[in-house]
Design brief:
Number of domains: 1
Structural class: mainly alpha
Largest sheet: none
Distance between the termini: 42 Å
Order of helices and strands: HHHHHHHH
Number of strands: 0
Strand content: under 5%
Radius of gyration: 18 Å
Number of helices: 8
Length: about 180
């Protein structure tokens, strides 16, 4: 019985081939411009305030929407839906379980995964977005449900616009694969 369990960990296929220099360039350019636009917006408009425009989970989103453009996890529905659903759940869990941050964190991530699955909007960085709502400290926590709009919705929209422009400039790229 245990042998079959351990056999599952061998994997089924070989590692995918390396991507070419052109693919690396377009992934680099998209991520540079996408994260750069969100970060520039943050420092231009919100530096010195308690508001933020950039969160850590956007780095993981950049990998998907600029580096894995064909992945179902990188599509606009997943990017926007995954972040927004997870942000709402993260803030809600903080409000309901605030004194028990360990419980709020665990519920925020696990409920976000379940909700993203149920809505066909699975986006792995969404789990981090939910977790950030709970563990980021007073600056983020005090935003409450404003966190869903600023930074989450606005930052994800900026990155999506850059992805639509940059990913379609490349002759061998197409983005998105689907919208809904």
């Amino acid at each position: 019985m245990l042998t079959g369990y351990w056999r599952k960990m061998r994997g089924l296929t070989k590692s995918p081939p390396r991507v070419g220099l052109q693919e690396i360039f377009w992934s680099w350019l998209g991520s540079f411009l996408g994260i750069g636009a969100v970060a520039a917006g943050h420092y231009a408009f919100f530096e010195g305030t308690d508001l933020v425009l950039i969160i850590g989970s956007f780095g993981a989103s950049a990998v998907l929407i600029y580096g894995a453009t064909k992945s179902p996890l990188a599509q606009p529905r997943n990017l926007l839906g995954g972040h927004l659903i997870s942000a709402v759940i993260g803030v809600t869990m903080l409000k309901l379980c605030g004194p028990w941050l360990w419980l709020a964190a665990a519920l925020a991530v696990s409920l976000s995964i379940a909700a993203m699955h149920a809505t066909k909007s699975l986006h792995p960085p969404g789990g981090a977005t939910a977790l950030i709502a709970v563990i980021s400290g007073p600056k983020i926590q005090q935003l409450g449900y404003l966190y869903v709009l600023l930074p989450v919705a606005s930052g994800a929209l900026i990155m999506l616009l850059i992805a639509l422009i940059i990913n379609n400039l490349a002759p061998n790229r197409r983005y998105p694969e689907f919208w809904l």
